[in-house]
Amino acid sequence: MQSVRIRFRTWIKRMLITLAVLFAIFLLVIVPYGISYLITHARTRPADRRLTESPADYQIPYRDIWLQAPAAPGDSSNRIPIHAWYMPHENPRAVIVYAHGLFRSRHEMLERAAWLWQHGFAGVLMDLRRHGESGGEISGLGFLERLDVETAVHYVRNRLNWRGPVVAFGVSMGAAAVLLAAAETQDIDIVIVDSPFLSFENTITHHLKLVLGLPRFPIGDLIMLYTRRRIGFETDEFDLQKAVRQLNDRPILFIAGTADRRMPVAMQRRLYEQAATRYKTFVTIPDATHGAAFRTHRDMYEQAALQFLDDALKRVSRHGGASGP
Question: Were 200 and a residue from 19, 238, 255, 307 both cysteine, which residue would form a disulfide, CB within 3.0 to 4.6 Å?
Fold first, then answer.
């Protein structure tokens, strides 16, 4: 009887150890690895895939174009096909490159682009990699997408031979891509960012607490580790605070929603304060959640953006001289 009890206790102890090991594997490997996989394999959500509007619905001329952006380390090819709409204008004040948010597509920016076209701005609306009709095996939360923005800017400068002002306009992930691109190329003259975040590290930490109520350690650190390896960057390379400190007096507009819990106003204001330019504007849109400022108070949004662009165009040093898009 005594030996049976000993064997039973030994069995229980082994089961508990096995369960503890399995739980640790689940918590420290499967959960963070799975979250990292979802982050880096994001695609356009089904509702956006069903959208069929085009610039033609706004009586605006356009043409489909395909760009070739550099691939991520994890992609099987060395170039990524990027689908875009090019909206020419007879006498453009500037050309705007538009970058949408995570899970969205070029359709997210169409109303904004159509409205700005009516005010004299040509535009390039693209599907960022792995979104819409564009290719790509890895999504980069803005880090890789900066290459898509730079590719579109290169198209404007070199294929269209445009020597006037170029504006980069992004929302959320697109805002991150725009800021990182502006830090790398002087071919972007003016920047508009709607709902940007501080850094990759801050975003993972903040969302882990916001959504799951969990601290950064250990799951957050592991998510960041797996994601950095998948996308291929070091932590300080994906820091938008560092990026805004390299703007070199280029005009920038920050747009934040007061009801944005994902990227609170206070966080976005920190970016504004660190931006290395004298020509910066910070606008808050009442009651707007993340990325929803345009549809929440469109009149206020449009007035702020157009006033900023009018002022910014007076400050940029580039002039015409090209055939014009």
Answer: 238
